[in-house]
Amino acid sequence: MAEIPEPIAGAGQIxxxxxxxxxxxxxxxxxxxxxxxxxxxxxxxxSVWS
Length: 50
Fold this sequence. Notes:
The protein is mostly helical. It has 1 helix and no strands.
């Protein structure tokens, strides 16, 4: 984990505060790209969430 600057919403954007998330092993495999063969479209997401 690392400290990052607080994001600032630009024109036409909103900023959402996330208080809690849930992540399981399958989510991690999908995000890493190791489950792409199970899906007809690419499911890899950006690693930057703001």
